[in-house]
Amino acid sequence: MSTELIAGRYTSDQLLAGARALKSEDVISGAVTPKAAFCAAAGIDERTFVPPNFVRMLLENASKTERDKREYRAAVMALPEAAERPKAAARVLEMHAKNPMPLHRVQALLASLPSEVAERRAVEDQAAQARKALSESTGPGPTLKRRVEIRMSAISVRADCGDQGARSELRKLQYAMNIVAQSPSTPLSRALALADVDVNSIK
What residues contact residue 56 under an 8 Å CB cut-off, 6+ apart? Predict the structure, then answer.
């Protein structure tokens, strides 16, 4: 190990280890700052580190490289093609971290791939349609509401003529409909159950 002091404070081995760290994946990816990586590898306290002139130049160059990569990443992710294919864009950035691909080539590559957003929308639409079909086949929906309305219309005449049974049933049906009107998220079948009405009896 070299103990020769550089700039009166640091050994050549320390500075060499720090310089090597500037080429690490962490610095290239922007996970850590060049100065932090340099100090960690060299065993130097970052808070008190006063870099010699040539080290300062290395750090400035590494910082510029890091900044350029951030700007390149932002430019790639800002492409319309990347907005439609965010996972593919991230993969391209990962694969070409050391040697960035020209933007026009990234744009052409992404444009040749299927749209992730369109695929996701299609899956979501299919799921929504499946939920709607299931709801219509198993839930009350408009069909049950219409049956209740027809039932109410039919028994209202009897209720007006003094039929006590019809009046009682009509009150229950009206109560259930009021529940749904005041709380639209409540299924009509649930409201009917709360009103003590047998759904199967409404035909």
Answer: none
Query: By C-alpha distance, which of 17, 97, 96 is closest to 58?
Result: 17
Q: For residue 11, which phi and psi values (nearest 5 degrees)?
A: -80, 160
Distance CA 2, CA 14 (A): 9
What gap in Å lies between CA 156 and CA 152, rounded to an integer?
A: 6
Q: What is the 3-state secondary structure (H, E, C) of the chain?
A: CCCCEECCCEEHHHHHHHHHHCCCHHHHHCCCCHHHHHHHHHCCCCCCCCCCHHHHHHHHHHHHHHHHHHHHHHHHHCCHHHHHCHHHHHHHHHHCCCCCCCHHHHHHHHHCCCCHHHHHHHHHHHHHHHHHHHHHHHCCHHHHHHHHHHHHHHHHHHHHCCCHHHHHHHHHHHHHHHHHHHCCCCCHHHHHHHCCCCHHHCC
State the pairing for strand pair 5-6/10-11. antiparallel
* CA dihedral of 54, 59, 65, 68, whole degrees rounded to 10: -120
pLDDT tens-digit map of 143-158: 888 888 888 888 887 8
Residue written as token pair 């081995």? 13
pLDDT of 78-106, one tens digit each? Answer: 999 999 999 999 999 888 877 888 889 99
Tell me the C-alpha distance between 45 and 62, whole Å: 19
